[in-house]
Structure formats: structure tokens, C-alpha cells
Design a protein that fits this description.
The protein has 189 residues and is an alpha+beta fold. The chain contains six helices and four strands, in the order H-H-E-H-H-E-H-E-H-E. The protein has a four-stranded antiparallel beta sheet with strand order 1-2-4-3. Helix 2 (24-35) packs across helix 5 and helix 3 (54-75) crosses helix 4 (80-87). Bound molecules: flavin mononucleotide.
């Protein structure tokens, strides 16, 4: 099996990290791999914010957990995962990862969600091939409307929040989450 296929099949979301920092050169390489992803009409509209400050990371995690718990209470749709996180002061949507990469799309993007998602896919595989673990954090999406967060990250007005990925050295064995057989609806020949 070639190395690329190896990374694709071996990668798995990591939810436990060592506290050691990811060297800046490695982060830059991984961001470059993200930026090199296919993107609508090659507008190159994807931009990144990297957060390594543990205090900031945990602050926004708690903010999101409170917000999600509040929204669940209001809507009457109680979510056990969110309730558990809200009751546990140590719960962290970013799993203690030493770095969090937020993906934004500039106003010139014609396919912002697709561009940002492909960038994350590239970054996950690049990171895996370099010995890092990653996980997409959909729970963080509410930060796209958080003024304090957008200001702290220096996100220009009009940019769209697209995605969030954590990264770091895995702590312990990486659990593999297997897939079923490929689902092909029809193959018309
Ligand atoms: C759009 C998206 C949002 C996700 N959000 C979260 C999240 O908030 N927290 C989390 O622990 N995992 C999250 N994940 C990771 C998935 O749970 C994970 O990819 C899936 O269970 C398959 O496992 P694998 O990545 O190890 O193959 C997300 C994945 C995607 C694609």
C-alpha cells in the first residue's frame, strides 16, 4: 500500500493529547497542506487562525459548553452529552489539545464550506503522516458568532467561520473507529 493510502486508512480522530506543543514549523507545514487543497475556482479564500494559548482554548470551550447547554434548555431538546459537559467543570470540547486550528473563508469564496472542509481533510492526513493526532470539532461552530472570539482571532468582518480542527501528539493508543463496507448505490457501466 502506498504512503498516502496508508495515512487515509490509519487516520483516526484523537481525543487525548500530550501537553507538548506542536513545533511552529510543523504547524506551518500542516496549514500549507490545508491551503493546497482543491478550492472553488482557485479563489484561495481559506484563512486560518491558530490558537495555542491554553487559557484561551479552555475559555472558549467553556463558553461553547454553556451556550450549547443554554440553547438545549431553551429549546427543550436536552442533549445528554452537552448536559454532562456542562456539569463537569473540567470538560473540554478541545480535549486538552495543545493547538486548535480555526478555518475561515473570505468573502471572495464561492464554495466556502467545501473549500474549508477539503482544507481540514488535507490537514488531517498531513498531520497523521507527521505523527500527530487530530479531530474535527463541530461543537466549536458557535464561535463563528462570538464577537470576543472573532476579535481575539483578528478575523476580518465578512469572513465566514467554516471549521475547527484540534492537533497534538496523541496520548496513549489511538482508538480505531472502523467503517462498514463501502456503500455504492449503483455502478452504471
Ligand atoms: C463535521 C464533523 C464534526 C465533528 N465534530 C466533532 C466534535 O465536536 N467532537 C468530537 O469529539 N468529534 C467530532 N467529529 C469527529 C467524528 O466523531 C469522527 O470523525 C467519527 O466518529 C469517525 O471517527 P474517525 O474520525 O476516528 O474515523 C466530527 C467530525 C466531523 C466530520
Amino acid at each position: 500500500m502506498n504512503e498516502t493510502l496508508g495515512s487515509i486508512y490509519e487516520r483516526s480522530s484523537v481525543r487525548k493529547y500530550k501537553s507538548e506543543k506542536v513545533p511552529e514549523n510543523d504547524l506551518r507545514e500542516i496549514l500549507k497542506a490545508g491551503f493546497c487543497a482543491a478550492n472553488g475556482m482557485n479563489r484561495q479564500a481559506i484563512e486560518f487562525a491558530v490558537m495555542e494559548n491554553a487559557g484561551s482554548i479552555f475559555k472558549y470551550s467553556r463558553k461553547i459548553i454553556s451556550k450549547l447547554a443554554e440553547e438545549a434548555r431553551h429549546s427543550g431538546n436536552s442533549n445528554p452529552i452537552i448536559n454532562r459537559m456542562a456539569e463537569d467543570p473540567a470538560a473540554d470540547i478541545f480535549y486538552g489539545a495543545p493547538a486548535v486550528i480555526f478555518v475561515f473563508a473570505g468573502q471572495n469564496a464561492i464554495t466556502p464550506v467545501e473549500d474549508g472542509s477539503l482544507a481540514v481533510g488535507n490537514m488531517m492526513l498531513a498531520a497523521h503522516s507527521m505523527g500527530y493526532g487530530t479531530c474535527f470539532i463541530g461543537f466549536a461552530a458557535g464561535l463563528g458568532h462570538d464577537t470576543e472570539f472573532l476579535e481575539e482571532c483578528g478575523v476580518p468582518a465578512g469572513h465566514r467561520y467554516v471549521a475547527c480542527m484540534i492537533i497534538g501528539k496523541p496520548d496513549g493508543n489511538i482508538e480505531k473507529h472502523p467503517r462498514s463496507d463501502v456503500k455504492i448505490i449503483k455502478w452504471i457501466k
